[in-house]
Amino acid sequence: MDAAAHDAVAMRRALLVARRGEGYVEPNPMVGAVVADAEGRLVAEGWHERFGGPHAEVMALERAGVGARGGTLYVTLEPCCHHGKTPPCTEAIRAAGISRVVVAAGDPFPAVNGGGISALRAGGINVETGLLETEALRLTAPFRRLVGTGRSWVTAKWAMSLDGRIATATGESQWISGPKSRALVHGLRGRVDAIAVGIGTALADDPLLTARPAGARTALRIVFDSHARLPPAGKLAASARETPVLVVVGPNAPPTRLRVLEELGCELWTDNAPQRSEGLQGLLAELGRRRLTNLLVEGGPTLLGSFFDARLVDEAWVFLAPIIIGGAAAPAAVGGRGIPSLQDLHRLAIEEIAQLGPDLLVRGLVETRS
Q1: Is residue 49 among the annotated active site residues?
Q2: 48 closest CA partner among 30, 69, 73, 72
């Protein structure tokens, strides 16, 4: 194996182990690191395991011990050079005697942003950048969205029939997707910071919107409910003191209903924006201020349509069941205004197609033309 191929193998391993931190490290990014000794043998690996804990580089270097001296460190993100919750990784790298560092992608966080690479080079360490950069940028995309725009990464999720329906004309929707698909959704819920539905879904399905079994994170449950119609006896309001619920209300919501929801423990957030898109952007900015990295939008069609109309969807998970529902009155997955022309379409850059029992999962990034 030549040197370039060896480097690629090591970096792919670092990208793989980085994902072990998913759901545990946010709002920090997932990061992985691998150490090769002076002879090129891969001797240790590490990843950022939890928010506030040691970074991937430190974990890998501690496991490598003296094997790191004169060796190479492969890391998926530029090492930090500032004192935050942990000391600078650049100092740990120099102290370990590493002679070469291979970095997949730079860190956009203002306290780093090129400073880590500069500090390593100033310390006499050979630094190479850009190996598997595309993969590393994708790994840290939600973190980069939060740092770069101040808003959460938005993942839209829905289950539908082959003819694009999410329910029958009478509103029956449980269950379109099968058990394996629903289990995967619960796993996804356990990794995100917030889950949103519209009041139509809340009234029709009375969902709990929790991960079962519990995951790494407990998501804030958000209901878009301009007139505060969320039932006090429903699962969401009734469990608000155990698992947080935020109700997005309009300026004309009846005060008596607002008081009832507050007394049950729901947090209220008033959307005063004149346009729906502005209100969504305002909420995403609020979630960003709370350092909530990932928002999962579960529906229904009105809410999904609003997010797509506002061009705020970053990623989509679509569960396709091998059934036909039919009926002009049966709701489609995405409502809203839609696009006036195919030149304005939303295209999915597919990253995965997987079979889950009888269902298909199609997952990818949303690319919007405008």
Answers
A1: no
A2: 30
